[in-house]
Write a structure and sequence with these properties.
Number of domains: 2
Helix content: over 70%
CATH superfamily of the largest domain: MetI-like
CATH topology of the largest domain: MetI-like fold
Number of strands: 0
CATH architecture of the largest domain: Orthogonal Bundle
Strand content: under 5%
Oligomer: single chain
Structural class: mainly alpha
Shape: globular
Length: about 290
């Protein structure tokens, strides 16, 4: 009897495999369709739009482009590294389990959790040179006229960097805090027994354990920050006098303000020589399990 049941199972197994494979294909098809239309098609269409050599001649001859390329490089170097460095040390602050620190942590998360539009517009209103809160406080408390924050190019670009850090610092602090929480507490207890100072504990225990996570977060943050359009456009609009544009906002300026979509796409494509090497390094690190 058992042999007959086993034989029946063997005979029906191929049919079940085919049925399972058919259902697998049916379930995968929607994801493939969405991937093709949402990812593959936009990328290919963008490459076609940005394939015209005249577009590149136009942007390279535009004096604004060189300033935007420099702004993008400065933005990435300063904003990303300062943001991750602050996140590294703030993760140590929030590692403490005191109740009041937890409440501070809730307030600290608000900029990242808040919608981008009102969050950045609130900063724009605060630093308005005529009726903003910052200049009003400077006048009432110190009797001095505040600087023209959004009128002077250097100050405006500094505010762009500060806004980006303020908006995304909580996210990377949480990432590094999770890395700290994964470090075995036995290491810290042994260091305390040996009489190690806080600096020695950070140097020989905390940072070696977080180094790979810190480097990976820096690379990933750099990739995301190349396309940070909101911090610039919502705060300064690329002004004053197009002095705070980065490549992402300059591409929008060409495509929608001027109506030259191919040139706008070509402007964004010029950032690929910076992005692609970072992506390659990041993939290699993830492939090595780092």
């Amino acid at each position: 009897m058992s042999n007959r049941i086993a034989a029946a199972r063997i005979q029906t197994a191929p049919g079940r495999v085919q049925s399972d494979a058919a259902w697998g294909v049916i379930l995968v098809i929607p994801y493939v369709v969405v991937f093709v239309f949402v990812v593959v098609y936009p990328i290919l269409y963008g490459m076609v739009l940005g394939s015209n050599p005249d577009s590149y001649r136009k942007i390279f001859s535009d004096p604004i482009y060189l300033r935007c390329a420099w702004n993008t490089l400065v933005f990435l170097i300063v904003a990303v590294n300062l943001k991750l460095l602050l996140a590294l040390f703030l993760s140590g602050f929030f590692y403490n389990t005191d109740t009041w620190i937890r409440w501070v942590g809730i307030v600290f998360l608000l900029p990242w959790a808040a919608p981008t539009l009102p969050a950045i517009f609130s900063i724009r209103w605060m630093f308005n040179s005529e009726w903003g809160m910052i200049n009003n406080l400077l006048f009432r408390l110190l009797g001095i006229d505040g600087p023209l924050w959004l009128v002077k190019p250097n100050l405006a670009f500094l505010l762009v960097i500060m806004t980006h850090i303020w908006k995304f610092l909580p996210f990377w602090t949480i990432i590094l805090l999770a890395g700290r929480m994964a470090i075995p507490k036995d290491h810290y207890e042994a260091a305390n027994v040996d009489g190690a100072t806080r600096l020695q504990v950070f140097r020989f225990i905390t940072f070696p354990a977080l180094k790979n996570l810190y480097i990976t977060s820096t690379l990933l943050s750099t990739i995301w920050s190349v396309g940070d359009f909101n911090s610039v456009y919502l705060l300064t609009g690329g002004g004053p006098w197009d002095a705070t544009h980065v490549l992402s906002t300059l591409g929008i300026r060409y495509a929608f303000n001027i109506g030259d979509i191919p040139t706008g796409v070509a402007t964004v494509i010029t950032s690929l020589p910076l992005v692609i090497p970072i992506v390659v390094v990041l993939i290699r690190r993830l492939g090595r399990g780092e």
